[in-house]
Write a structure and sequence with these properties.
27% helix, single chain, seven-stranded mixed β-sheet, Immunoglobulin-like, six-stranded mixed β-sheet
Length: 736
């Protein structure tokens, strides 16, 4: 029985050891995913191609469509059914996402917020399936399960074969101001116009992969999308006076006015934004009320999704960056902010994300659209919200907000549109990695750019908040209390710490780029990311992964003590000088007679010296012993001792729980300083307390831990100590 208790105790201690192997938490490597973090030699993934025709009616705010999906079964498994994502069903009256929301009322609450509850209860934005048929027109049986739909097949799809089927559907388009969502419409009552931003607007194939089989997790609102790559051919029918922009390239440019086509060609060669639709033309378009329709056709290759936007109100500008047509579409309400910054921010993101990931932006266009959605991303197109005031004024904060959100959303083309992670399970793999590269790009935009996330010190308020312990980064997004701080902020700060403090830029950048290249247009999982970082860099970061991604402990290292040691050189005269230099210590009777010293033992300060004063002269025997010892020294030993070296024993305590490297700045009495870095391995034998000895030629005046704020230490009051330190004298032993 005792050995069982001992084993359990040892197991518990090991489970708490920050240096335990992280491989225990990862899937076993196999032919599909290798131990190095690279795709295995038998790696496979499915593919889905779409041919879609859809019609938008702005008067009724309804969208109807028909799509044909060609599903390629590249897995080794026969498939007897398919799963489809119906994300629009989040607007169903009985949707799990809405029913599961925690809601509270306050004594003072805006009237429109009160009415919003009733509107949501009565709103039915569910996607209506009109038919599901195979390529011969035969009906297929299907079952809707919330935001998912299972389609049963009469014959299994064999490995290496494809299956073609079609779906007809329709749904209302949600008013984003009232019902929220990733897309929707915005109504401008001043000129009776709309901006439609269409996202997750059609039935899409769910992912089938080697780790989880079919992805059947419900869309609850926060965990976004897991999708397969494919080619899209999409025809969008809208009122004749509407302008449409979308994922992919416009195929029938004759829908554009001739002058717009001319300007578009000019923009393809321009290093500065060029108006394709001018502000004056957009104002005239707002007044139009065409009765006919027009169909815009777009094609996109090897993308995982398709989104679009449509309005009469759009101003349109564009420029070339590295062969990519960078564009912005926005209403007059976005001017002059959007004219000045949006397209340039798109181009900046395309350029520097390519630099930091090692992947050239692969598509012909990159588009930023201003409308109701404040920030959302899709292949080649994103929706962004900041606008100036009605009079055109905007603050520095609003300007930075626009630049940041554009960089972030365009950056999502890399995470997860190219490096196609599972957003439904691992939000940090797209939002966190993207926020990290966003920070790097922001600093390239402008020196001392006021980035919200990235530097470790930005994370301190969150780490101080006890609620941050509710979940580790590895938690599924729909179970996270503070999504922004955890999945965006903590991930970005963690990668920045790895880059700047743990690995160094050269090693980290090489490993990060290798991960991006390995998993471009594939489906990586967390183990693939971490294994790649370790294998390429050669740095063991299991302790960091354990604590930062799987743990919730904050960072709080404290300088517990600094003790200064001087070393005897066995010279009697030097030892006498040392004794005379020591502060004169009072006897017990002298202390008791002082008014500032407590008179009772219980009141007495334990730090007050109570030992008798030392002798200030060596005895003749002591002098002889020292001289004999000095005669036995080698020349090297004598030179070392005569140099008057000072040894400092530094003890650091890990109060917070998360181990971190030591970054120590010693400032000497002459005003000079030196910085010493000790890896986190200093904690491997005792993660709570560790000590290190440092040797200097001159006395230390102060010591600072983490002087550059490289870690999110939640208590910096215990990160600095000044002389005088505790002092000790060492008389070393000679020989054995």
């Amino acid at each position: 029985m005792h050995w069982i208790i001992a084993l359990l105790s040892a197991t518990t201690v090991w489970a708490q050891n920050p240096f335990r192997s992280i491989e225990d938490a990862f899937p076993t490597p196999n032919d599909y995913r290798s131990a190095s973090g690279a795709p295995g030699h038998k790696y496979w993934q499915q593919r889905a191609d779409y041919h879609i025709r859809a019609t938008l009616d702005p008067v009724t705010q309804r969208l109807s469509g028909a799509e044909t999906i060609t599903y390629h079964n590249l897995s080794p498994d026969p498939l007897s059914f398919l799963w489809i994502q119906l994300d629009q069903n989040i607007f169903d009256k009985h949707a799990q996402g809405y029913a599961g929301e925690t809601q509270r009322l306050r004594e003072s609450i805006p009237l429109d917020e009160i009415i919003k509850h009733q509107r949501r209860e009565n709103y039915d934005g569910k996607l209506r399936i009109l038919s599901v048929v195979d390529n011969n027109g035969a009906k297929l049986m299907y079952t809707e399960v919330g935001t998912m739909m299972r389609v049963d097949l009469t014959e299994a799809i064999a490995p290496g074969k494809k299956f073609v089927f079609s779906i007809k559907w329709e749904h209302k388009v949600n008013n984003h101001k009232i019902f929220g969502g990733r897309g929707g419409y915005e109504y401008f009552w001043q000129d009776d116009n709309y901006i439609f931003e269409m996202a997750q607007w059609f039935p899409r194939m769910a992912v089938y992969n080697d780790l989880h089989g079919w992805q059947t997790l419900q869309y609850l609102g926060r965990g976004e999308f897991t999708l397969s790559f494919g080619d899209y051919d999409v025809s969008l029918t809208v009122p004749e006076d509407y302008v449409v922009t979308a994922t992919g390239e416009l195929q029938n440019t004759d829908v554009l006015k001739s002058e717009w086509r001319t300007r578009l060609n000019t923009a393809r060669q321009s290093a500065e934004p060029v108006y394709i639709i001018t502000p004056e033309e957009a104002k005239e378009n707002e007044k139009s009320r065409a009765t006919g329709t027009k169909t815009w056709r777009f094609k996109a290759e090897n993308v995982r999704d398709f989104a679009w936007a449509a309005s009469r109100k759009f101003i349109w500008d564009a420029m070339n960056k590295n062969g990519v047509l960078c564009q912005s579409l926005y209403p007059k309400e976005g001017s002059p902010l959007w004219d000045r910054y949006s397209t340039k921010a798109v181009a900046h993101a395309v350029d520097f994300y390519s630099h930091y990931t090692g992947i050239k932006y692969p598509w012909p266009v990159a588009i930023s659209v201003n409308g109701p959605v404040n920030g959302m991303e899709y292949p080649m197109i994103c929706f962004n919200g900041p606008r100036p005031d009605a009079d055109g004024f905007y603050s520095h904060g609003v300007r930075y907000a626009l630049v940041s959100v554009v960089i972030h959303e365009v950056g999502h083309n890399f995470f997860p549109m190219i490096i196609n992670s599972d957003e439904r399970r691992w939000m940090w793999m797209d939002e966190g990695l993207n926020s990290f590269v966003q920070y790097l790009c922001e600093q390239e935009w402008e020196r001392d750019y006021p980035s919200r996330r990235g530097p470790a010190e930005k994370l301190v308020p969150f780490m101080r908040d006890p609620t941050h312990r509710h979940a580790p980064i590895m938690t599924a997004p729909d179970q996270i209390l503070k999504t922004g701080d955890l999945t965006y902020g903590k991930t970005a700060a963690g990668l920045n710490i790895l880059r700047e403090t743990v690995m160094g830029r050269e090693l980290f950048d090489a490993a990060f780029k290798e991960y991006c290249r390995r998993w471009a247009f594939k489906h990586p999982y967390p183990a693939d990311f971490f294994r790649t970082l370790k294998q390429v860099s050669g740095v063991d970061i299991d302790w960091f992964i354990n604590g930062w991604f799987f743990g919730t402990d904050p960072v709080d290292l404290a300088i517990a003590s600094v003790t200064e040691y001087t070393v005897s050189n066995f010279d009697p005269d030097a030892e006498n000088a040392h004794l005379r230099s020591q502060p004169k210590r009072e006897s017990i009777s002298q202390k008791r007679n002082r008014a500032d010293i407590p008179q009772t033992v219980s009141e007495r300060d334990p730090n007050i010296e109570t030992t008798p004063p030392p002798a200030v002269e060596l005895s003749e025997n002591e002098r002889r012993r020292l001289l004999n010892a000095r005669m036995r020294l080698s020349d090297e030993e004598r030179a070392f001792l005569d140099a008057g070296k000072r040894l400092y024993e530094v003890e650091i305590k890990n109060i917070g729980g998360m181990v971190m490297p030591w970054i120590l700045e010693f400032v000497f009495e002459d005003g000079t300083s030196t910085e010493i870095r000790i890896g986190a391995e200093i904690w491997r034998l005792d993660p709570k307390t560790a000590a290190k000895v440092f040797v200097f030629d001159k006395p230390v005046a102060s010591l600072t831990l983490d002087p550059h704020f490289e870690t999110p230490d939640i208590d910096r009051e215990n990160n600095q100590i000044h002389a005088p330190f505790k002092r000790q004298r060492i008389i070393p032993r000679i020989g054995n």
